[in-house]
Amino acid sequence: MKNITLFISFLMISLVSFGQQNPEKKEREPGHYNISKFKQLKEELATPNVYRTGSGAPGPNYYQQQADYKMDIVLDDENQKIYGEETITYHNNAPEGLDYLWVQLDQNVRAPDSKTPQVTAGGPSVSYKPEKFTQTFLGRPFDGGFKIDFVKDAAGKDLPHFINGTMMRIDLAQTLKSGHSTSFKIKWWYNIPEHTIDRARSGFEHFDKDGNNTYIIAQFFPRMAVYNDVEGWQNLQFLGRGEFALPFGNYEVNITTPADHVLDGTGHILNRKDMLTSKQWKRFEQAKKSFDKPVIVVTQEEAEKSEKSFAKKTKTWKLKAENVRDFAFASSRKYILDAQAVKIGGKTVMAISMYPKEGNPLWEEYSTKVVANTLESYSEQMFDYPYHKAISVHAKQQGMEYPMICWNYGRPKEDGTYSMRTRNGMIGVITHEVGHNWFPMIVNSDERQWGWMDEGLNTFAQLIAEQRFEANFPSRAYPKNVVGYMGGNQSRITPIMTQHDNVFQSGPNAYSKPAAGLYLLREVVLGHELFDKAFKTYAERWKFKHPTPADFFRTMEDASGTDLDWFWRGWFFTTDYNDIGIKDVKKYVVTDKPTKRAEAMYKAYGIDIKTLGTNLYLINTDSEEYSPEMANVKDPSNDIPVLKEYLADNFTKEERAKLKDTKYFYEIIFEKPGGLVMPILVEYVYADGSKEEITYPAEIWRFNDKEIKKVFASDKEIKEINIDPKQLTADIDTSNNSWPKKKEDSQFDKFKKKSVQN
Question: Among the CATH numbers 2.60.40, 1.10.150, 1.10.260, 3.40.50, which is that of 64-247?
Answer without folding.
Answer: 2.60.40
